Amino acid sequence: MDSQGRVRNITDLARLAGVSPGTVSRALADSHLIAKKTRDKIQQLAREHDFRPNVMARNLRIKRAGAIGVLIPLGHETGQHISDPFFMTMLGHLADALTERGHDLLLSRVIPKDPDWLNRVVDSGRVDGVILIGQSDQIDVIEKVASRYLPLVAWGANLPGKNHCSVGSDNRKGGQIAAQHLIDRGCRNFAFFGDPVAPEIAERLEGCRAALALAGLGDSLSILPAHLTAETAHPAISKWLDDTQSIPNGIIAASDVIAMSALRALAEHGVKVPGQVHVVGYDDLPFANQTVPTLSTVRQDLAAGAGHLVDLLFRRIAGEETGSVVLKPELVVRQSS
Amino acid sequence: MDSQGRVRNITDLARLAGVSPGTVSRALADSHLIAKKTRDKIQQLAREHDFRPNVMARNLRIKRAGAIGVLIPLGHETGQHISDPFFMTMLGHLADALTERGHDLLLSRVIPKDPDWLNRVVDSGRVDGVILIGQSDQIDVIEKVASRYLPLVAWGANLPGKNHCSVGSDNRKGGQIAAQHLIDRGCRNFAFFGDPVAPEIAERLEGCRAALALAGLGDSLSILPAHLTAETAHPAISKWLDDTQSIPNGIIAASDVIAMSALRALAEHGVKVPGQVHVVGYDDLPFANQTVPTLSTVRQDLAAGAGHLVDLLFRRIAGEETGSVVLKPELVVRQSS
DNA sequence: AATTTTGCAACAATCGATTGCATAACACGG
DNA sequence: CCGTGTTATGCAATCGATTGTTGCAAAATT
């Protein structure tokens, strides 16, 4: 122990108890190799000096980290802030699920400049596994790492020909039911707000296209493929509304965040929702039924998603080669459509 | 290296390079004690085998963790979810600020059952410092730990007689300007929604009381001291509205989340806002200008707050005994008042 | 040519725990 | 009283890095 008499490691405590460090280690782990009397004495001593063994040293020795890395790759949207409501909602659910399993959550916002960002985390030895919230435009990097590192799961699209473990909703289906809903509402001209660089969004767009084609409305879709974040969506949409010749009567937003900005922009342009334009979002974030008008949207069950992510991850940590999970999206009709 | 020829540690790499582990360590750290030629060769080799030194081992040796613990103590509100918008917003800002300083963020939701929860994190050796988002009802525990552990900062109230380092707005002032604003709007009967068990909230309530007393309206305040979370606030407020004889004409909510629930409950009871009742929230979370009607509120600048928290924390890690920071709250008038 | 200086790299201790193996202490039956 | 068997503890290697000290050879100095 140091000059102040603080007990800093098991060796100090061992000296105090008159035993060897190994005995202390075993005693604190409640090992039956140590006599009950000795164990009690040592544990009591530890409590008195409120000593707790160093977790990092322990982890180094037993080769585990006790933490899961949660990464938010912001590849295609460098301006995107971590406090984006979607990420935050997901993160909250993950934190709960991981805490329940006795693991810590190591959070990193990542702006993948070099293709090494994921390796760096995986090989750092600080985490037992990694959860990606979104794939961004980093599919190739993710695939490459996933091929050699089992405990890696991602929220996002389950892409054909790709092997990494993912959990996400059926985006094509989601896009399709959104479009179909607008068709049913009588819309004939459509706009899609969102950047198809992200694979989930590309799939949602495809779903829309399929539904429109089926209804013989194949060429009635315009696309605003801007990088849409909470901050940038509103001006982008505003400008688009200014510039466009004919405002469509059905708008499909790639996320609720974008939809909310659209609602505000439309209101500012004096466009009535749902009178003149019908709007559908995607995600069903908590705020979706707080907007004006409340937002119709395609619901993804994020709590269930987080549960699956964590469950799959721990099975992979245990060595199992799990498959992916695709959740069923569900239309939630509110006032905006 | 193992049977597959993977390079797992500097010793493997040293063997490959025909040098000693120490030399590899220095080479990877770009130390000038190693000849440039040797350094280049080793770094090249490391790249080829994409080897990265184990961070945990490094941290153990140099006695630092490279991570900051961010804890959300949920003492008085066991039902409160980590995905509460306030926490999430704060967390987002913290993640950004910490990432900029090259530190990871170790997130823990804590339900303080035993008084040892904070010690456990602090003494675990996994973090270089701790940021608490909120003090909950754990002031005594926090004070005790803070007295021996310097790198600890908390978002919350700066309490008289308490010594731990805190960053927060002047809650009394905030409560006061909220109440004064309602008085100016002509309100004469008031209600406060929020549980004064949390010190910030107690201070906000005091501020209200002071303003009312000064205006000679000292006994016109009723209090709904329920544990108010996003989920529980709405039913609690609804019930309160059912039971109460006379609905007040000025409502001060202890947070925007509570205010939002109040708005919804009032609407459902057919009460016009701001026609019959004026409502003021607290925080100015991003959603505050998305509610119907948009929410008047007392703004706390959370981005600045997060910046201060991180700044103070790193100064404390460096050994400086910093003071606390009190931010000026600011009234934001929107439609609800 | 002899001596000092300089530059590079190896050696070994260290961070703080865990754990297989060796051993000491003790009890007990024969 | 000794051999055998438990039981409880100590010893020392180990996890994977970092770093002060030391040793050696080549370069610089006289």
From TrEMBL, chains A, B:
InterPro entries for this protein: HTH_LacI, LacI/GalR-like_sensor, Lambda_DNA-bd_dom_sf, Peripla_BP_I
One Pfam short name: Peripla_BP_3
Keyword vocabulary terms for this entry: DNA-binding, Transcription, Transcription regulation
GO molecular function, one term: DNA-binding transcription factor activity
Residues in HTH lacI-type domain copies: 8-62
Listed SMART domains: HTH_LACI (SM00354)
Protein's name in the database: LacI family transcriptional regulator
Organism field: Sphingorhabdus contaminans
